[in-house]
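Pipeline run #58 for the internal structure catalog. This entry was flagged by the ingest filter as a single-chain record with no existing model, so it goes straight to prediction. Upstream metadata was stripped on purpose; only the residue string is passed forward. Reviewer on rotation: M.T. Logging verbosity set to normal.
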Amino acid sequence: MSAAPQQTPVPAQLTVGDVVAERSIALTRDTLVRYAGASGDFNPIHYRDDIAASVDLPGVIAHGMLTMGVAVQPVVDWAGDPSRVTDYQVKFTRPIVVDPQAGADVTIVAKVGALDVDAATARIDLTVSFDSATVLGKAQVVVTLA
């Protein structure tokens, strides 16, 4: 049995401050290797502890674009269609250190930051954290609504 199709959010049913999505994502070293293969970004700071240490990083870190991708996915799922995302911006504030055994758990909370009922858009503000610290600053997604 297939799931019912996702309903497109309606501006009149939203209020600034509403949490529209929450998710925890587990990143592992395997995740980083797979992302490197898919993206072509084989910078060794993403898989070699010695190289990461040589450039004063606390350990192997997740790719920035991987972080952006996993952070926006809950909003894409909520919106029901990736083409509804019309703008997405972040500021990288801290790296996500991916431990070789424990990995890294990234938490994403997406809240309505602003609504434009006339334009049928919502600005969704993301709080993306790892190890109790925010890793993306001013992470905002503009979504076109029904």
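catalog note: Residues 1-5 have pLDDT under 50 and may be disordered.
catalog note: Residues 14-27+63-144 form a domain with the Thiol Ester Dehydrase; Chain A fold (CATH 3.10.129.10).
status: ready for reviewer M.T.
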